[in-house]
Model the fold of this input.
Amino acid sequence: MTIAAKRRAAKTFRFADDGSIPNNPELPLVLYRGGIDLSGSPDPEHVIEKTFAGNGWGGMWRNGIYHYPHYHSMIHEAMGIARGRATVRFGGDKGEKVEIAAGDVVILPAGTGHQLLSQSQELVVIGAYPPSGKYDLCRGSKAEHAKALASIPKVPRPASDPVHGENGPLVKLWPA
Done:
């Protein structure tokens, strides 16, 4: 665990398969509100990247969140908010709108739908992935859905929490 990580209670969400977005029947989405302390940092992107990398998560990117519903069926994903605010619908059309802001970290199990609904102008998101799994981008077609139902249960659970490391809440919430 890096010094920038704040041990906060994890908020969890579960979403049902809506016919287009499969979501994950076994694992909850995990949200750490203010999970990474960015106060006083001139480079919050670096703080999040260092935290994720220090806990074994890589394949990082800096960007925003797509405006269309999508999910990843072969890998889990962590998103740390470095700057700004956003409203994101998680779980597909029947999911939940969640406000996220700088310092928050969202960990999405494979299959979990996400879609940007609104954002502040300065929004910067850092994305990362555990070392096992393969990135794919699914948009909710019938053919993708059928394949995803078979691949989601096979995605390996990460060995560490992207914020809190090997003994973090994620490891307990997503047991192997």
Remarks:
- The helical segments are 44-54, 142-151, 169-173.
